[in-house]
Specification:
By secondary structure, the chain is an alpha+beta fold. The protein is built from 9 helices and 15 strands. Strands 1, 2, 3, 4, 5, 6 and 7 form a 7-stranded mixed β-sheet that branches. β9 (207-208) and β10 form a beta hairpin. It starts with a strand and ends in a 12-residue tail after the last strand. The model is unreliable at 162-180 (pLDDT under 50).
């Protein structure tokens, strides 16, 4: 097992049982359209060819919606590698899990025509997951990675490499997972309390068809922590969160995301901005940001209070 993914098999997992019985994972996004001529060149090439197709078929949709849909379609059909673990959520709070065994197949005339063969192994309950894994796996995105949770999933699914003991696999990843958990908690807290922040007075986390899709919005260089849009719909905001002190390397990271937004998502008359949120900064990041006028830095503060209880 190399990488773990969640793939939603129909809205609310309604097609999960059918896909498990047939031995596939499947997605839609663009209906009966053969995407095989556009595969093989990577996510950027695929989106460059398919975003316009999506918008022609769905003229009421935005470029952000097109980027999200075609990014998910590419991830399911090409981004997931053979041998990767996939989890398919079902309506009863369980997840079917299995291993991808082959490449893309086109099945026109079905509800989910864009498919990959999967050897479905079993199921696990959301209640068996750690709180952080359960939170990540519960995202509303259709296709997304669970990169930081590979060791825990190896334990839950018993699909670890026999040559590497479970304890060794967990030890090798524990530091990265703890760092991820801290940033994930910060991200979830910010999203849940967005309306009460200074950013929330100026921007909304991006939604599509009433669904929040701006958290962990995919790009061709990795997912953005948060994608927001100004109240007047003229500015897109990329938010990058870092636990503790931010390094100057994060400036290049957020600029990559902003470059993707500028090229792939902006509508005429829109611009893109960025904000880095961390607990501390230093001279190096301040120097880097002095040459990046459209990126702000904001600090977060964690407070802990004890209150007496009358007795």
């Amino acid at each position: 097992m190399t990488t773990a993914w969640v793939v939603r098999l129909g809205r609310g997992g309604r097609n999960a049982e059918e896909m498990v019985q047939a031995g596939y994972l499947g997605v839609d996004f663009i209906g009966d359209y053969d995407i095989r001529p556009h595969l093989g060149g990577g996510a950027e090439v695929f989106r460059g060819a398919m975003n316009s197709v999506f918008l022609e078929l769905n003229p009421e949709k935005s470029r952000i919606a097109a980027g999200l849909a075609m990014g998910n379609l590419w991830a399911a059909c090409e981004g997931i590698n053979e041998g990767d673990l996939v989890l398919a959520p079902k309506p009863d709070r369980t997840y079917q899990y299995g291993v991808v065994t082959g490449g893309y197949e086109y099945h026109p005339g079905t509800d989910l025509p864009h498919r990959r063969p999967v050897d479905w192994k079993g199921s696990l309950s959301r209640d068996d997951m750690s709180p952080t894994l359960a939170s990540s796996a519960g995202s509303l995105m259709t296709v997304f990675q669970l990169t930081a949770h590979t060791a825990e999933l190896a334990t839950l699914t018993q699909l670890a490499d026999p040559a590497q003991p479970i304890a060794q696999a967990i030890s090798a990843q524990v530091e990265d997972q703890l760092a991820f958990q801290m940033e994930k908690q910060l991200e979830d807290f910010l999203v849940h309390n967005w309306a009460s922040t200074s950013l929330g007075r100026e921007y909304d986390i991006y939604t599509e068809d009433g669904q929040p899709v701006g958290q962990q919005y995919p790009s061709d260089t990795g997912p953005m922590d948060i994608l927001a849009i100004s109240k007047d719909r003229t500015r897109l905001l990329v938010v990058e969160l870092k636990r503790g002190r931010a390094s100057d390397a994060v400036v290049g990271q957020i600029q990559r995301y902003m470059g993707f937004v500028q090229e792939a998502l902006l509508e005429p008359g829109q611009s893109v901005e960025g904000v880095i949120i961390a607990q501390e900064d230093d001279l190096r990041i301040r120097r880097a940001l002095s040459m990046a006028r459209n990126i702000r830095f904001m600090k977060y503060r964690v407070e802990f209070h004890l209150e007496p209880v009358a007795g």
